[in-house]
Amino acid sequence: MNTQLGRYYHLAEVWQRDADSVAQQILKADKLGLNIATLSTRVVTIHEITGPVNTASLHLYPKSFSSHLRTILRRMPSHLNVPAGSVALAIASTSNNSANGASSNVESHGVFSFAELEGKEFNEQMEILNNQLVLEQRIKEGAENFLNMNLNESLRLQVKSELEMAEHKIDAITRQIEVVQVKTKSKQSSGVAILRRKLIQQERKGKDADKGEDFRTALQNATNLLSSLASFPSSYATGSVPSSSSTPNSLDTDHQVIETISKLINILRRSLRVRYELKIAEVLNVILPFLGDKYSKQARAAAYRLVRHTLVDAESVKLLDESRYLDWYIIKSLNRDNKHSVEKEQVIKLIRTMVEIGTVKGEKMTSGGGTGVVPISEPIMRAIIAVAEQPEDPFRPICIETLAEILLIDIDLVSRTGGIGMLLHTLGDGPIELAPLLSAAFLHIVDSPRTRVHLQVGRDLELALSAITDAYGKGPDHVDRMKSCSRVLQSMLRTWSGLMYFCMDDMRAIRSIVDTLRIPSLDSREIILDMFFDLLNIRPPEWHQTFITGRRLTMYQSPRDAGDARIEPEGSEKGYQTFKLTDQYIALLVLVLSHAGLCEALSNMLEESINGTNLTRKATLLLAEVLQMANRVLPLSVAAKIQAIPEVFDKATHYSDGEHRIIGTTAMSAIDSLNRNRARLQPSTVRTNRPRANSVEDAVRRGQRHVEQVKLKMNMQMDDKTFQSCLLETQVMLTKDSTKWHFETLQEFIEGPLLNPKRMEEAIKVSRFVRRLMTFFHPFSHRFSDMPRNKSNIKWVRLGCSLLSTLMTSADGVRYLGTEDQFLSQIVKSFAQLDPFNGVPDSDPIFSKKRVADTLTYGYLEMLGTLSKHKEGIELLEKFKVFTAFYHLSELRSREDLIKGIIENLDYSIDGHPRIVLSKALTSSYKHIRLFATQHLGDLIRGSANANAWTLRLLLTQLYDPAPEVCELAVHFLQGLCEDKDILQLVVEMQPTMDHLGEIGHPLLMKFMSTSMGFRYLYDAGYIDREMDMWFNERNICYVVQVEVFLVKAFANNSDDDDDLLAFDGTVPPHFYGEMAKTELGCQILQEKGHFTEFSQFIRKHSDESEDMELIMKLKSILWAVGNVGATEGGLPFLEEEEIIPAVLAIAEKSPVPSIRGTCFFVLGLISSTSQGAEFLDDYQWEATLDPLGMPTGLCVPIDFQAFTTIPSWSPVIANRTLGRVIPPTAEAEIEVITAIQNLANTVIANASSRSLVRMKSRPEYRHIFTSPTMLYRALNIISTQRYRLPIRRFVVDLFNLELNQELVQKLKQCGTALRVHPSYKLSASDTSRLSMFGPLGRPRRTSISDEEDELDPPTANAVPTEAQEPVITLQPIHKVVGFTIAVN
Questions:
Q1: C-alpha to C-alpha distances, 1282 to 250, 378, 477, nearest whole angstrom
Q2: Is the pLDDT confidence value at 57 over 60?
Q3: Three-state SS string across 1052-1097, please?
Q4: 1315 burial level (CB within 10 Å; 0-12, 13-18, 19+)
Q5: Is the peptide bond before 431 cis (omega within 30 degrees of 0)?
Q6: In angstroms, rounded to a whole number, what is the distance separating the alpha carbons of residues 1152 and 501?
């Protein structure tokens, strides 16, 4: 049976259950493009498989469906005929009511005849023919499907005859269709498409009715299925289940339950409205019995899945949580072993859905509360934590992730249930792949004072460092864990929360990391060194490995090679003074690490070996990079203290100790060598368009230019004899084999003597040298054009360009190329070979894609570009209609290589056809051509010395391109070009309209705002007022999100987000208020609007905000706005007038939120970017970094950085537990069992307690305890309020011989109500003595509690009452000093 018949089985089952649903499926299938005849053929196949079908709702089907079905049934073999009274009768009844049309006319006859087509219109004929063709094709497919089945020989022959007949009719109908089309000479849509459109229209007309009917049907089916589920438990109660089954439900019944639940789930998934109509309480009452132990794990999993799909909103989750019936089932399911993974999976999905849907955001949460309330009970949380603690459990990762999500929402719940400690240990011990997730969650907790009170400084978050600080003495298997820990630590130190947390307690955590460099463990120290390289964004030069291995750097690479090998990224640097936001943060990191002793630790590593090792040289490299970075990003006074490196200088000047002096001098020499080679080999950070006038190599360049000028002058003054000698020396006149030509002599001859018009005339007319040479370059000579494209042959392309340039310098050369030579005419003919309108194309054209890619044919484009550089050359190109060929080529979609080559090589300095070709490419109908042309145009403008109006006008035209990518590329180029004031002025004068660009055009419009003319233009257009209101109300917040997301991605070093990083080069993005403050008119409007006054008032009012996240985000946005205004000369007076800088400094040093402090740090850097701002901050002990010219760079650090990086300490809070207080037991046996269960939480005596419980369970006097619902409730209460590992929880639950069902859950709820104590209840002295963890103290200690006896001793008859018994032992704390004493003088 093939796979297609398997799908038929499913449709047959649906048919037999409900014919209405089949009708709806047919309508839906037809809407998706499935032909009606296909559906009818499937029905025939279904009938063959299942027998007579239900036809009660056949009147719902389309009439064409009935016709197709009747025809196919008539053509079926005799043994498959439909019995009387089934489908045939229904078809007969529906056919009487069918309308007379083309389709019914065709199907009403037993034999189709082409004579029926006479007198009908073309559309009617095509409809009839297509319908008949589709019918015969489906018959053919049905016959082929029957042949794939096991049929007897006679039946197979009948089916084959039907197949042959159908194929014959298909051929005849196809030929007739061609005849009809030829006669009418028109193309019309097929009849099948017309029929399909009619059916879709019919379906659309009854769309609303169908929707209502669908919902009512779905709701009715869901209600019926719920009733069916409710009947299963009652049937079990009446004893309908066979007694031979070992469980209350047999496998068949269990399968029916699962199938019914699955059907109900399918309805809920298809119809969201049904979910809202069903009441969660009713569903829960029906489904709870199937969560019991008597059902299989698959049934329980299906039941949990149904509950999950029933949840629609927070109210439904609240009802689910308040019932408390489901908690015990979930706890029991989570305690099960891995054999029940299908059940545990659905339980965890249900819990995650409850967290996602049911979380209620708190309007005003108390300190330490979190951002919302998660509707998960503490017993369930304890069960999740137990699974998350079990290393072998496959659901451990998802449980850890779930707890991390709950931690961010409701930290109080996680703290009460002990989840914080478990997550902290997971952060330190693994799994490794979850460490970044957990570290990010805890850093978010640290950022808020109301949530970080749940952490203890010095012991909680520091667990993340344990893999590094405890690495000494560990084996090689510990290396992977150390690498993971270093990555986590690196990500934590790159956030404000992590940096300020680890700076607490005098940077004890950071010092512990730095001090690990002093540990003699090679592997660990190399990992830590690599971490510091990445942390400080240090990219060692490509030759750093040479230094580490001990080789000399002076022999590694020459400056000329370095310059040749270097490829500078476009726009990588705007100058020496351009710094990024990441540079400012790294400046603070360098300051923190240097005060934590990083340089001292690196200096101590140098003492390990006099000769030096790879590790010590790597430490030297890091030390040199830190010193270099400090010099670049820190103020001079601060950097000087770091660069002193007194430890190294002390060793170098320690004349009494030779070893120390060698180590010191070697380190200083290595650092100096690194700096010299970096200056010599590294790319310069300054981009210039010309060589420096004071360069060391300037004299060499001047000498080379002088030699070339003298040589050219001598060549042009060459006498006749020397000229003839050089001409013959080229070998051009002697042989046609270009491999025997002297290329160097030939090139000098072309670029020298032939520049003399007299010599050019002689070479053309007398010696015919130029003719022989030009023949070599003719396309149809297949000499130059057939040469392979490789590095050694590219010189011939340069020679051809030089020859054409030389010809253009003389009138004879121009005349020869235009009248006597066939070079340009053959080029045009070669282009014509590609034109599809020029007849039959050539089999191997000169400019075929393969030849252009593999041969020197591409060089012809460069030669044509050389001609376009000269006015005479453009005239020649016009004469030979080369530009016309270019216009034709621009319309070829398949030859974008030629179009790109033409655009790249043409010269546009002369006004004429080349610019028209470029503009035509810019407006091509193909987007990829427009993108390439726009890219080339931008490169042309950027590479030109002066701005050209025509190029800018073309680029501005691209702003109106229909493709957003082209518009975005044009905006990108204009942004970079508008850095030049002259270009910006030209663009503003053209006054482009950019309202249609939306968000893409905002950065460019902000560039316009930085000039007076541009601001006036935008102000008159209404852009300023509109944008000002939008920024004041909305876009300030978006700006904060944009900057913070960039910083996260920039520090994450994620290669997948490189595209996002390229969109943001790291400098502070333009801010609307900052651009306004650059012009006098902008400052005037800002003053009139009063926005800055409102900003200053908000900052003063909410400077201490730490609770409301919306206010915190708005505070950050206003701080960024103030900083951007203060970064301009015109905006700084606003800050001085409002006296806002002291307020920002106060927030930076006193705010309880680290991220707000970090925002102030960046804002103060912006303020320091002006000389006046730097001077103002210097009065408040914030020093700005200056460049070599004494100008501020926009980096600023506090002199007393510890006041900035240290957040106030706090007292950890102890979470209040809301569960666990129940009335203690009074019976002696119950006390013993409860005490033993409690002792299971103690790992020291857990084994003894477990053995005691096993022995108790085997004793008759204790058996009633393990069948008591009350004792089960006490046990569940204990494991739900204390920390128990998952195996112990499973052991405790399995001790009780009680089957978890609805009755037991009801008793547990009653026990919870009866045993609940009032909050004022206090345990009596007798209760306290009974609940001692060492066992019952009211009588002599039973050895069976902890000893390893096989049986328990019987109770003592004359035991002394507990009230009269004194305690067996009395423990008092003893304070003692062990070890040594310290004498105080």
A1: 38, 10, 34
A2: no
A3: HCCHHHHHHHHHCCCCCCCCHHHHHCCCHHHHHHHHHHCHHHHHHH
A4: middle
A5: yes
A6: 12
pLDDT for position 1145: 93
Structure tokens of 120? 């009908």
Stated as kind and residue range, the H or E segment containing 1196 is strand 1192-1198
Helix (H, G, I), strand (E, B) or coil at 450: coil
Three-class DSSP category at 293? coil
Are the C-beta atoms of residues 806 and 760 closer than 8 Å to each other? yes
Which of these, 144, 210, 137, 215, lies nearest to 177 by C-alpha position? Answer: 137
CB 1185 within 8 A of CB 1173: no
Which range, of 300-309, 355-364, 495-504, 798-807, averages the lowest pLDDT? 355-364
Nearest to 140 by CA among 191, 220, 75: 75
Residue indicated by tokens 């009511």: 97
As a whole number of angstroms, the distance between CA 443 and CA 498 comes to 6
Q: How far apart are alpha carbons 1362 and 1226 in whole angstroms?
A: 12
If 0-12 CB within 10 Å is exposed, 13-18 middle and 19+ buried, where does residue 317 land?
A: buried
The answer to whether residues 631 and 624 touch, using CB atoms and an 8 Å cutoff, is: no
Strands 372-373 and 360-361: antiparallel
Supply 58's token pair.
């056949």
Residue 731: left (phi > 0), alpha (psi -120 to 50), or beta? left
CA gap 748, 715 in Å, rounded: 9
| Cα separation of the two ends of the chain | 99
Q: Are strands 372-373 and 1182-1186 parallel, antiparallel or unpaired?
A: unpaired
The region of weakest confidence among 849-858, 1057-1066, 1219-1228, 1349-1358 is 1349-1358
The one-letter amino acid at 475: G
pLDDT above 90 as % of the chain: 20
Tell whether the model's pLDDT for residue 175 goes beyond 70.
yes
Tokens representing 871?
């006015």
pLDDT range class, residue 707, cuts 50, 70, 90: low
Does the pLDDT of residue 1211 top 50, yes or no?
yes
| CA 1003 – CA 196 distance, rounded (Å) | 50
Chain centroid offset of residue 1375 CA: 58
| Structure tokens, 1091 | 């926005």
Tell me the average pLDDT across 1227-1244: 90
pLDDT band at 866 (very low <50, low <70, confident <90, very high): confident
Res. 1285 pLDDT band, cuts 50 70 90: very high
| Secondary structure (DSSP) of 307-333 | HHHH--SHHHHHHHHHH-HHHHHHHHH
CA dihedral 1042, 1048, 1052, 1055 (to 10 degrees): -10
Burial class (CB in 10 A: 0-12, 13-18, 19+), 421: middle
Could you list the beta-strand ranges (E) of 617-656: none
- The per-residue pLDDT for range 226-278, each reduced to its tens digit, is 888 888 765 554 444 333 334 444 577 788 889 999 999 999 988 888 888 88
Stated pTM of the model:
0.72
Tell me how far apart the alpha carbons of residues 695 and 462 are, in angstroms, rounded to a whole number: 53
pLDDT-based confidence at 1098, cuts 50/70/90? Answer: very high
d(CA 996, CA 1020): 17
The residue written with tokens 């460069």 in the block is 862
Residue 698, pLDDT score: 52
Question: What length does the chain have?
Answer: 1385
Q: How far apart are CA 135 and CA 41, in angstroms?
A: 9
How many angstroms separate the Cα of 490 from the Cα of each of 95, 441, 533?
78, 15, 10
φ/ψ (deg, to 5) at 1193:
-100, -5
Q: Which two tokens stand for residue 731?
A: 């070998």
Q: Which residues contact 962 (CB under 8 A, 6 or more apart)?
A: none
Share of the chain above pLDDT 70, in %: 73
